[in-house]
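Before drawing any conclusions, I looked closely at one protein's amino acid sequence and its backbone structure tokens, quoted below without any editing.
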Amino acid sequence: MKSKSATHEAVTSSNRIATIDILRALTMVLMIFVNDLWSLKGIPEWLGHVERGVDGIGLADVVFPAFLFIVGLSLPYAINNRRKKGDTEWQLVQHVLLRTVALLIMGVFLVNGETYNAAATGMPKMYWNPMICIAFILIWNTYPDTMKKYIPVVLRSIAMITLIILAIIYRGGQEGNIHRFSTSWWGILGLIGWAYLVSATLTVIAKNNFWIILGGWIFFCIVSMAGKAHLIPREVMTIIPSAISGGTLTGLTMGGVLTTMIFQFFVNKNENLKMTLALTGFSALLIVLSVITRPYWGLAKLGATPAWLYLCSAFTILAFITIYWIADIGKKAKWFDLIKPAGTATILCYLVPYLVYGIRNFLHISLPEVLRTGSVGLLKTFLFAMLCVSITGLLIRFGVRMKL
């Protein structure tokens, strides 16, 4: 890298590239796909999650870290765009805080649905996820300016009251160990929320300074290793959410921010080949770090190990480079139009499967075993993922646009 001032000037571009949305869309399709594997049998083990305590990863174990990394990839663009529109630093921080709260709320409600006890709550389980997802959409939907102003207020109020009532009546767990609405863990969206909070705040503070971002990434990588080496006091690990204190998840997101900074530095100078070499070199370094750290703490998603952090970051960077050359340099972004809604309305797309499952349960639809087994089952699950993307696109056309 050149001087600090040169770096600052080079990375302030806020021009969007198609690659990030496409990579996010592909990741979301994969997330829906692997999240539906539970409904199948007779499929290869490497497609699913590796069990806790096992050294290794499956396809499902690389999807979530890719999503976290992509959150980081988009941060410099999103923050610079808001600055161009006139947002002050305090307004940027407010936006980060509000978005974090939204992700935490959604994450916690979805998590509580996993241990829902219908008998103790007094409401069939099949209603929980559809009701909370509809409430999420009503609260965070962007309503058209042509709509009468009182309508969004009424809809959001009804949705918030619904969530409050559901949280009050909720009972979870098994008979003899019933618990109320709680944060047993934050859920996927909640974990993303905590990692986003730290990474976005640091990106705002950095003001496009490469060295601050690099230092932030190194810091959380060190925290990840120190945590696994039991060098961080238990009190710290208890007080601070694990997505932050563990270092690994925030390290993934900060890795995405760092990658975009490197990417912008070269691309703004029209040096795509140098960019490719630099990011390929960064990926190689990450793979080496994964190999070095794996003997100490293993390679595992459920253990959130440093080797998992480094290897999945490398995979995502290589995917990012590949798609960039296809979509932005090769002008083939239209190849991915079929899955575009998953990249531009990602949270909405994430919620759609819960709605589809709810409708299926309500209608008591059960697929025959042949459609849930082996390669036929995998095709069914892929088509299910594409159905969810199509429904997302349809909802967008009808004016449903969640904005956090």
